[in-house]
Amino acid sequence: MDMAMAARLGPLGLPHAALLGSSAAASTRALPLAPSRAPRLPYPLPHFPTCRRPSSSSSAAAYAARPRPRRGSPRLLAVRAMASGNPYAAELAAAKKAVTLAARLCQAVQQDIVHSGIQSKADKSPVTVADYGSQILVSLVLKMEVSSGPFSLVAEEDSEELRKDGAEEILEEITDLVNETISDSGSYNISFMKEGILSAIDDGKSKGGPTGRHWVLDPIDGTKGFVRGDQYAIALALLDEGKVVLGVLACPNLPLSSISNPNGSSSGGQVGALFSATIGCGAEVESLDGSPPQKISVCSIDNPVNASFFESYESAHSMHDLTGSIAEKLGVLAPPVRIDSQAKYGALARGDGAIYLRFPHKGYKEKIWDHAAGSIVVTEAGGIVTDAAGNDLDFSKGRFLDLDTGIIATNKQLMPSLLKAVQDAIKEKNQAASLL
């Protein structure tokens, strides 16, 4: 990885960790502790067995002399979380930190993609590096910050392709970029070797399910938008006993204020939004640079004529003819706002539009990581997210959603008329297909 890319991965302003890794190329200086809170060591530490450790006597001495973090009692942490009114406060803080770090890596890679003219994920290297790198960083942060037992991550990527002959070069690129991002952020003084990279990716092979806790991740949601230099998201959620209890969406290219045109760009102002929600605690948005969080809520429009709706940018991802029919039946006058990724959920949650429609082509199975984070951001902002029959989304069935036809989201006032329009449009489409 060249020095120009490393230079673009600027400081995150995140708390330092007291863990010191070393290699022939790694520094042996101990990073200071953040004064406000003591960081945690990964638990259990062998989750990253191939991270580099000090080998020389001087490195070993520096490692032994590193500042020691104070271990927080799980009981005390739970008490503090309850006192804050959020039983998942620690998990929320870790999730925000994880997606923010991953976003920095993705921003650097997207800049290179735009400058180099790459057009698809088939071009391999940069897009694939970002996908894997994002997943590795999220897994690392979650383990370092909140893992206190079995760690389960349901994620899009696994290491199968990277273990094949001919993948050595891209694996080296991933390793370099991940290590540079960690080092330049100042968040942890630890680095990976290649086997550790593969192991961290495979942390995401969990099947999820109705029991226990499972993190759910899409490391880059909206790949085509990412390649075009447009909208994408790093989407992370937490399932607890089959229910989504927490979600964060890092949207590096989404304006912090309202979207002002159909392509999701802004006439001005700050770009880079971080949406978050915890069950029972509402939804918020803040800048990726760390501005104070602001409470958000869905719009209060009750007349479909005044509504606008979001849908996928790519017609391959959603049936635009069907969504057009639904909008016509509702009387919606505004043209569709087409945006890649779960950034649509974030925009809907803060009232940029009134309706979100997603109707994939026949045979497509929805993955839980494509909707878990976004759906809780909308519902905690006062909205409703269901399938085309009006059923709540069920994330307890494993890696896929078992649902009726499509996904719709809106406010409580519009949902009855939206459901009727959806069901009428689907019925007409099916009748027309049966005549062919």
Describe what this molecule looks like in 3D.
It is a single chain. This protein is α+β, with helices and mostly antiparallel strands. Helix content is 35%, strand content 15%. A seven-stranded mixed β-sheet has the order 1-2-3-4-5-6-7, sandwiched between helices. The chain has a five-stranded mixed β-sheet with strand order 9-8-10-12-11, with helices on both faces. A hairpin with a 2-residue loop joins β3 (233-240) and β4 (243-255). α5 (125-145) crosses α6 (168-185). Mean pLDDT is 80; it is low at 1-83 and 261-267. Mg(2+) 2 binds at residue 220. It catalyses: 3'-phosphoadenylyl sulfate + H2O = adenosine 5'-phosphosulfate + phosphate; adenosine 3',5'-bisphosphate + H2O = AMP + phosphate; adenosine 2',5'-bisphosphate + H2O = AMP + phosphate.
Could you tell me the mean pLDDT? 80
Report strand order across the widest sheet: 1-2-3-4-5-6-7
- Gross geometry: globular
Task: Catalogue the unreliable spans.
Answer: 1-83, 261-267
**Biggest β-sheet description:** 7 strands, mixed
Number of helices: 12
Rg, Å, rounded: 22 Å
Count the E strands: 12
Structural class: alpha+beta
In whole angstroms, the N-to-C terminal distance is 55 Å
- In percent terms, what proportion of residues is strand? 15-25%
> What sequence of helices (H) and strands (E) makes up the elements?
HHHHHEHHEHEEEEEEHEHEHEEH
Q: Which percent range fits the helix content?
A: 25-40%
GO biological process, one term: sulfate assimilation
Catalytic activity: 3'-phosphoadenylyl sulfate + H2O = adenosine 5'-phosphosulfate + phosphate; adenosine 3',5'-bisphosphate + H2O = AMP + phosphate; adenosine 2',5'-bisphosphate + H2O = AMP + phosphate
Cofactor: Mg(2+)
Family: Belongs to the inositol monophosphatase superfamily.
